[in-house]
């Protein structure tokens, strides 16, 4: 193999690598969440799962009142955020993937909450979002406002200027 042939192959490999990486870099730069520092989310539809007679039973209803979730000190590039009004020592992992934003909240009690926000708007200034609560409390009593079953919410989030 000659020097020119090696140079040509390395140049082609480098150009291909740049070409493959460009869409991913562009997607992160084009995301409305890349520079966001805060989010305010409202979820109005709720689905729960309940175990009854050894099997799962779904239930879907309007979330009354609507569930509100707010994040501040958001840094998508660093992968960090705070849950506004949250109590305790919560670990929040932030991921900006394909222009969409995902926030995973875990706490020492074993609960995991996931909020995923689409880069597509539901209406001007608001983005389609889902919020999931992975939680199970072994109790037959359901207390309003207290998560004791797996829950899935549908709503929207707005970027908050801080």
Topology, pairings included?
Blueprint: H1 3-30, E1 39-52, E2 55-75, E3 80-83, E4 91-97, E5 100-106, E6 112-123, E7 126-134, E8 151-159
Antiparallel strand pairs: 1-2, 1-8, 2-3, 4-5, 5-6, 6-7, 7-8
Describe it.
- By secondary structure, the chain is of the alpha+beta class.
- The protein is 17% helix and 51% strand.
- It has 1 helix and 8 strands, in the order αββββββββ.
- The chain has one helix at 3-30; strands at residues 39-52, 55-75, 80-83, 91-97, 100-106, 112-123, 126-134, 151-159.
- Strands 3-2-1-8-7-6-5-4 form an 8-stranded antiparallel beta sheet, with no helix packed on it.
- The chain starts with a helix and ends with a strand.
End-to-end separation:
59 Å
- Structural class designation: alpha+beta
User: What shape does the CA trace take?
Assistant: globular
The neighbouring-strand order within the major sheet is 3-2-1-8-7-6-5-4
Number of E-type strands: 8
* Percentage of residues assigned to helices: 10-25%
Low-confidence stretches: 6-16, 18-28
- Strand percentage: over 45%
Mean pLDDT over the full residue set: 78
The rounded Rg comes to 21 Å
Tally of separate helices: 1
Order of helices and strands: HEEEEEEEE
**Major pleated sheet:** 8 strands, antiparallel
């Amino acid at each position: 193999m000659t020097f020119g042939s090696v140079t040509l192959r390395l140049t082609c490999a480098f150009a291909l690598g740049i070409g493959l990486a460009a869409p991913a870099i562009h997607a992160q730069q084009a995301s409305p969440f890349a520079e966001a520092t805060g989010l305010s989310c409202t979820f109005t539809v709720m689905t729960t799962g309940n175990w009854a007679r050894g099997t799962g039973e779904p239930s879907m209803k309007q979330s009354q009142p609507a569930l509100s979730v707010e994040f501040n000190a958001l840094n998508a590039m660093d992968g960090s955020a705070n849950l506004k009004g949250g109590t305790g020592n919560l670990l929040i992992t932030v991921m900006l993937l394909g222009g969409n934003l995902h926030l995973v909240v875990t706490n020492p009690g074993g609960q995991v909450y996931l909020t995923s926000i689409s880069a597509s708007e539901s209406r001007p200034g608001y983005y389609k979002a889902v919020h999931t609560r992975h939680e199970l409390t072994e109790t037959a009593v359901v207390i309003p406002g207290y998560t004791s079953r797996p829950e899935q919410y549908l709503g929207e989030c707005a970027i908050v200027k801080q």
